[in-house]
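// run 5 | inverse folding | seed 20
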């Protein structure tokens, strides 16, 4: 009888589910950044998980982005970190290298299964020493899409969207308006900061080059491919004269109709459509600068990580598995209007119904390559931007700009690696 009773109890626990089998109430803490769409999606997913697992309570807190970055780092140093964090892809590698977060357990997904399920560029920033440390929520798309004002393009005789780089430059020249030496309307505007950096890296790859050495302990920008890449970016303001550098955000320049075309992520389209419905817009893939595939460097997007010191790793990973399942991922992406990292959701009709402009990133995602371990992303971007700006203004040569980039980034890497 005792054996039968024991067997009955085991079966009952198994039927209740792996997490429901815990007798005690379990509380998990999850942190994220303040974003109304992310927060709504996460609260929906948490509620669905708690309904299936009534003995698990997830306390979800969000913080402004800058505060979140500092608070997360401080929390680990004083032992007050949450169980689960929704973390920027820029940071995950650093947390993994410092042993602060757990690798994705093989029971959830093996390395091979991760690489089969997700786009390479979407998860490359989560991998350290051959192991992944996060499950992805969305994909970044800093390079790959151009937003066009069709009314402006048609007014200058451009009826079809460019499909090659030469066609893009030709259309941009027609749409550019100059007032003496000043440009009052950009034909094609490539914004500063991240956009220019990602274009430079993409152009290097499309020219058949690489910007990392083999083990990513140093960069190499003094190559013929890098010279061609930077020259093409400088040409936008110099030889082609289709844009002038500004500090104004590309989205603002576009809605003010001071640019016919701008490089921008698909995330901005919902804002443009809702706030400026009178604008007739189109969104198209950024053409390769060469005849080769439009390869580009992709920074991994937001992902879920589990703290190494959480007392409930199994429950935390169970929630991560639930939150990143195809069904919940679809809900998250429909709510946030972000780009899926999942190959299974490529060209998903439900996502396209919510945001038809996703067709462009869907076409580009297979060409994304992992960005690499930048060590300090903000400094990496600043170093490149300073050199590109100086070259575009004619203050230094293309060769000198590339030498500066290589020397300064390699010094930063050496310091970060303790060399």
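// decoded
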């Amino acid at each position: 009888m005792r054996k039968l009773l024991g067997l009955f109890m085991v079966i009952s626990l198994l039927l209740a589910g792996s997490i429901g089998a815990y007798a005690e109430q379990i509380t998990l803490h999850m942190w994220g950044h303040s974003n109304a769409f992310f927060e709504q999606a996460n609260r929906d997913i948490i509620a669905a998980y708690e309904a299936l697992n009534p003995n698990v309570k997830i306390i979800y807190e969000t913080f402004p982005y800058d505060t979140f970055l500092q608070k997360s780092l401080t929390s680990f140093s004083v032992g007050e970190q949450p169980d689960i964090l929704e973390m920027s892809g820029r940071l995950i590698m650093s947390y993994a290298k410092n042993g602060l977060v757990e690798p994705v357990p093989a029971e959830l997904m093996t390395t091979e299964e991760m690489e089969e399920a997700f786009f390479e560029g979407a998860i490359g920033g989560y991998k350290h020493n051959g192991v992944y440390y996060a499950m992805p929520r969305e994909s970044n798309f800093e390079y790959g899409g151009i937003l066009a004002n069709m009314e402006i393009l048609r007014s200058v005789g451009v009826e079809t969207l460019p499909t090659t780089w030469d066609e893009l430059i030709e259309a941009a020249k027609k749409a550019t308006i100059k007032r003496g030496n000043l440009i009052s309307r950009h034909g094609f505007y490539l914004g500063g900061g991240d956009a220019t950096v990602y274009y430079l890296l993409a152009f290097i790859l499309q020219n058949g080059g690489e910007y990392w050495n083999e083990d990513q302990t140093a960069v190499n920008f003094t190559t013929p491919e890098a010279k061609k890449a930077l020259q093409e970016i400088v040409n936008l303001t110099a030889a082609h004269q289709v844009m002038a550098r500004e500090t104004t955000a590309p989205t603002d320049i576009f809605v003010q109709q001071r640019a016919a075309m701008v490089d921008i992520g698909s995330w901005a389209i919902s804002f443009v459509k809702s706030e400026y419905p009178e604008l007739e817009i189109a969104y198209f893939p950024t053409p390769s600068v060469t005849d080769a595939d439009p390869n580009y460097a992709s920074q991994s997007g937001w992902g879920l990580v589990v703290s190494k010191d959480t007392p409930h790793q199994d429950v935390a990973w169970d929630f991560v598995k639930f939150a990143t399942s195809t069904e919940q991922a679809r809900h998250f992406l429909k709510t946030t209007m972000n780009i899926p990292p999942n190959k299974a959701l490529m060209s998903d009709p439900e996502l396209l119904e919510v945001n038809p402009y996703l067709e462009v990133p869907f076409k580009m995602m297979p060409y994304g390559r992992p960005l690499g371990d930048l060590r300090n992303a903000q400094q990496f971007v600043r170093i490149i931007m300073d050199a590109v700006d100086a070259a575009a203004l004619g203050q230094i040569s293309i060769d000198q700009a590339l030498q500066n980039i290589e020397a300064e980034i390699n010094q930063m890497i050496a310091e970060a690696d303790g060399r």
